[in-house]
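chain below, 349 aa
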Amino acid sequence: MTKPTVAVFFGGRSVEQPVSCASASGVADALRERGFEVTSIGITREGDWVELPAGTSFALESGSSLPEVTAEAGKAVAVDLGPGSTPVAEVAFPVLHGPYGEDGTIQGLFEMAGLPYVGSGVLSSSLCMDKEFSKRLLAAEGVAQGDFAVLKAGEELDAEAVVERLGLPVFVKPARAGSSLGISRAKSASDLAEAVAKAREVDDKVVFEAGFVNVREIEMGVVETLDGDLEVTYPLEVLARGEDGWFDFDAKYLDNPEPFDLRPDFPEGVTERAQDLARKVFRLLDCRDLARVDCFLAEDGTVYLNEVNTMPGMTPMSGVPQAFAAAGLSYGELVERLVTLAAARAGRS
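prediction:
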């Protein structure tokens, strides 16, 4: 059977562009190794689209400048997505993180163009990107998660009210971002103003989350099968910590060659409860193809949801590819399945 052509989209206007570049390098290389014809289309911070030569590689390395797409990196390209146009490829693979890529925007563009694409649809992508609304929906469905508060654009911070409600420490996050960018751990009410200012450099809506104490941080990858079932990885445990004691950007991507325990020991029943929760929230949020479900494991064995990522990091160090590889699904097999799922929805497989 002829394999569909694939256009890998990456970079973008989000602060998460460096992670997207590194993820896309792995995806494109793996697809080419498995016999796919791949076009790599990078999006600059200014929104220009650039076709990069095959073999262009980006990596996240400690001590090096973070990778990004520039107008000089390749050939400027105008991708025609209008009716009757020649498609850039048969399947789009948006390896984009954060706003303007993981939030339903580019998914809506592909929908309008009738271009099959990997990953969750418009609503699910938008919902999972917005921590406020995903938390509210899941709370209504009885999903266990930490308490939170929201500071919207134009609203003034009432630090004492936040601490009174959530206690300390408090995690302060941009509502619509990932890769731990713009996040602070506030240890006192006096820390909150600076933390809000940092978060608002990324997003003008801010979420405050109660900081769990004495918990283990776990993650699971979820991938659909061709018959519609869900495969959930064994929960990996996050071991790496940054200078402030939590899993920040440097700890995730730069400072720790082995940031995870892929087969941690858990009390009886924890693995099953965590996997059941991952399946439940994947369905509740109407996710598609792939997601990463992040949770906290409390000392009493309760599993609390942290968040859901519809396009998790796909760098060699990222948790989802490692967890699936440990379960017997190689990186190449994983990305090929994602393309196959997208093509099957359009009747092109």
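The mean pLDDT is 89. The chain has three domains: 6-120+336-345, 128-144+212-327, 148-210.
thats it, cya
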